[in-house]
Automatic annotation (TrEMBL):
Lineage of producing organism: Bacteria, Pseudomonadati, Pseudomonadota, Gammaproteobacteria, Oceanospirillales
GO MF annotations, alphabetized: phosphoribosylanthranilate isomerase activity
Gene from which the chain derives: trpF
The keyword Amino-acid biosynthesis is annotated on this UniProt entry: yes
Top-rank EC class of the record's enzyme: isomerase
Protein name per its UniProtKB record: N-(5'-phosphoribosyl)anthranilate isomerase
Pfam families to which the protein is assigned, alphabetical: PRAI
Organism the protein comes from: Marinomonas balearica
Pathway assigned to this chain's UniProt record: Amino-acid biosynthesis; L-tryptophan biosynthesis; L-tryptophan from chorismate: step 3/5
Top-level taxon in the UniProt lineage: Bacteria
Record field: catalytic activity: N-(5-phospho-beta-D-ribosyl)anthranilate = 1-(2-carboxyphenylamino)-1-deoxy-D-ribulose 5-phosphate
Family: Belongs to the TrpF family.
């Protein structure tokens, strides 16, 4: 059964509904160019109201040390997701569990990247689109994903309630990550889509 991360959370109502539907993690975007950007203050206020056993994930794109620390200093619960060109040493320097996102460029060598980011708790695989660090709304060729890996794999990129069953059946990822695929408008979740997505993601398990 795949775990589910609902990303692009901007308000408490969406956060609590996603958790009620079974979300295992919530993603908060600290990339100012994103329409789903939230301030550290808003995000930490939401995190302070979350029930236990739900992981808040702080998403950064080539952020400064000050920007990262401004967020994670507000709660001991944060896990960091690095979505830019961050190096392994930088990712590990905060003393916080981290996820490294890899954009699936045609020439990307996953074996090499998995070895480089061996200190990550998981690797997130996302679609590649030039100039767009994430949230492309596009899928990539899932056949490129290794069938066996020592590192938990989080599948992202263009997932929706319509394709999530096929995704978990084909890839059997540790977790799936969705943002735009369950939105009403950018930054506001569609409750019907959220519920449908989580139900389908967790309904199929490898026999």
């Amino acid at each position: 059964m795949a775990r589910v991360k609902i990303c692009g959370i901007t308000n408490l109502e969406d956060a609590l509904f996603a958790i009620e539907c079974g979300a295992d993690a919530l993603g908060f975007v600290f990339y100012s160019k994103s329409p789903r950007y939230v301030t550290p203050q808003v995000a930490n206020n939401i995190v302070s109201k979350l029930p236990p056993f739900v992981a808040p994930i702080a998403l950064f794109v080539d952020a400064s040390n000050e920007q990262v620390n401004d967020v994670i200093s507000g709660s001991s619960r944060w896990v960091i997701q690095f979505h830019g060109n961050e190096q392994p040493e930088e990712c590990a320097s905060y003393g916080v569990s981290y996820i490294k996102a890899l954009r699936m460029k045609p020439d990307l060598n996953l074996t090499t990247e998995f070895e480089r980011f061996s200190s990550a708790v998981a690797i997130l695989l996302d679609a590649y689109k030039a100039g767009v660090p994430g949230g492309t709304g596009e899928t990539f060729d899932w056949e490129r994903i290794p069938r066996t890996s020592d590192k938990p794999i989080i599948l992202a990129g263009g997932l929706t309630p319509e394709n999530i069953t096929q995704a978990v059946m084909q890839v059997s990822p540790y977790a799936v990550d969705v943002s735009g695929g369950v939105e009403e408008t950018k930054g506001k979740k569609d409750f019907i889509k959220v519920k449908d997505f989580i139900f389908k993601a967790k309904s199929w398990s490898k026999q």
